[in-house]
Amino acid sequence: MPQQKTDASFGKKEKLKSQKIIGQLFTEGKSLSVFPLKLIYIETENQEVSIKAAVTVPKKNFKSAVHRNKIKRLLRESYRLNKGVVFNNTQGNFAFLFLYLGKEIPAFTDVESKMKLLLEKFNARIHEKTNA
């Protein structure tokens, strides 16, 4: 399958902001984990883009907003760089929520490698479901 070139940005239209969909993610969403990241996803309908994503870091693990925001920036950047893995290989619309489960601030290289593994795991699950 030829790789399509994707836009390496994470624009406004790709950000998941709907409280309704975020609530659905927690109640009905399916999840995948590659420690310290967890992906919760659901299939959605009628989106401008095929995948909308959000990131979150629990306040319970990181009391300091500065640290939470740093980790969220790392998660968004690693998703932005690796989203082509998913965009080029899936049909349908999805909502993603990335959770950071670790207890300490990670290095970017660690986050990026785990993000790649997580997105590849998602692809494998989706292809397994469609081919079954």
From TrEMBL:
UniProt entry tagged with the keyword RNA-binding: yes
InterPro entries: Ribosomal_Su5_D2-typ_SF, Ribsml_uS5_D2-typ_fold_subgr, RNase_P, RNase_P_CS
Catalytic activity: Endonucleolytic cleavage of RNA, removing 5'-extranucleotides from tRNA precursor
EC identifiers of the protein: 3.1.26.5
Claim: tRNA processing is one of the keywords in the record: yes
GO molecular function: ribonuclease P activity
Keywords assigned: Endonuclease, Hydrolase, Nuclease, RNA-binding, tRNA processing
PROSITE patterns documented for this protein: RIBONUCLEASE_P
Pfam families for the chain: Ribonuclease_P (PF00825)
Domain of life: Bacteria
Self-association and partners: Consists of a catalytic RNA component (M1 or rnpB) and a protein subunit.
Function: RNaseP catalyzes the removal of the 5'-leader sequence from pre-tRNA to produce the mature 5'-terminus. It can also cleave other RNA substrates such as 4.5S RNA. The protein component plays an auxiliary but essential role in vivo by binding to the 5'-leader sequence and broadening the substrate specificity of the ribozyme.
Classification via HAMAP family: RNase_P
UniProt similarity note: Belongs to the RnpA family.
Name assigned to this protein: Ribonuclease P protein component
Taxonomic lineage from the root: Bacteria, Pseudomonadati, Bacteroidota, Flavobacteriia, Flavobacteriales
Underlying gene: rnpA
